[in-house]
Amino acid sequence: ERTYRVSASTVGHATGLYVLVFKDQSETRRIDRMRADFIANASHELRTPLASIAGFIETLRGPARNDPAARDQFLQIMQNQTGRMARLIDDLLSLSRLEMKPYLRPGTEVDLRQTIDSVIDSLGPLASENGVVIEREFASGPLVVPGDRDELFQVFENLLENACKYGQSGGRVTVSIAGSEDGQQPGFDVTIRDYGPGIAEEHIPRITERFYRVDVESSRTQKGTGLGLSIVKHILTRHNARLSIKSEVGKGAAFTVHLPAR
Ligand code: ADP
User: Fold this and answer.
1) Where's the Histidine kinase domain (predicted)?
2) pTM, to two decimals
3) 64 CA to centre of ligand 1 in angstroms
4) Which one of 90, 91, 213 would you pick to mutate in the ligand 1 pocket, going by the greatest count of ligand atoms within 8 A of its CB?
5) What spacing in Å lies between the alpha carbon of 58 and ligand 1's midpoint?
6) Is the separation of the CB atoms in 224 and 213 below 8 Å?
């Protein structure tokens, strides 16, 4: 379905000729609709923890007033809910910052080995808390691509954090950097592989959508906003990079980032 805005004007002075301009509005409408959906989803995601906090405040002021055990439990839940809201706001801010600067600063380079080493270091505490060992398989030689270091850090951090959270039961995650196997374009493939429950085929095309979370036990118990992979996708598009996802249920999931060298 396409919609056009049509405007007419005369050509020259009293020539009797008209110019009709057809402006395709379908894309503008689609973007408006996406924006409205996004605001509705974001508001709902923020409203849910807020409603829960308001409910517990009421209980604490009423029935649970003199019950110290209930009070401690409710305060803990309220603290978790504020954490959830803070994560959501951080992710929303990341998305909006990315949208505000649509292009990358040209001329900057990222050392993948050094960036991924620091991602692994920063996720060390989460990995050990979840009983996950992170293994490195890095190719030798220089592993440098054009790009923004902070943004690529965020990409690998999101993917590795997911592997440690959702693939926890596999006990092991591997991070590899290899020369790209995509014959046409020289570059590097960074693969983050876990050995957890994996992702059913029907969910794979949807997990990079905003707010999409697979409704399985692991997503319900793990903290998340459903925005991580959409931020990853956004950043990769700016880097002319691609994300491919392979998974076999029960055997784990592999997320590969294909980064062009130039
Ligand atoms: P979040 O982790 O905040 O929920 P993401 O956008 O990072 O959001 O991920 C979306 C969903 O994709 C997750 O909720 C989870 O259901 C699924 N997912 C992501 N990574 C994995 C993985 N390594 N194994 C299994 N499921 C995953």
Assistant:
1) 41-262
2) 0.86
3) 36
4) 213
5) 34
6) yes
Residues 31, 208, 106, 113, Cα dihedral to 10°: 170
pLDDT digits (tens, 9 = 90+) for 16-62: 788 888 888 888 888 888 888 889 999 999 999 999 999 999 999 99
SS3 call for 229 = helix
Joined together, the tokens standing for residue 57 give 């405040």
Residues 38, 209: Cα–Cα separation, whole Å: 11
Residue 4's identity, in one-letter code, is: Y
C-beta 195 within 6 A of ligand 1 = no
Q: Is the CB of 155 under 6 A from ligand 1?
A: no
Question: Is 120:194 a contact under the CB 8 Å cutoff?
Answer: no
Residue-level length of the chain? 262
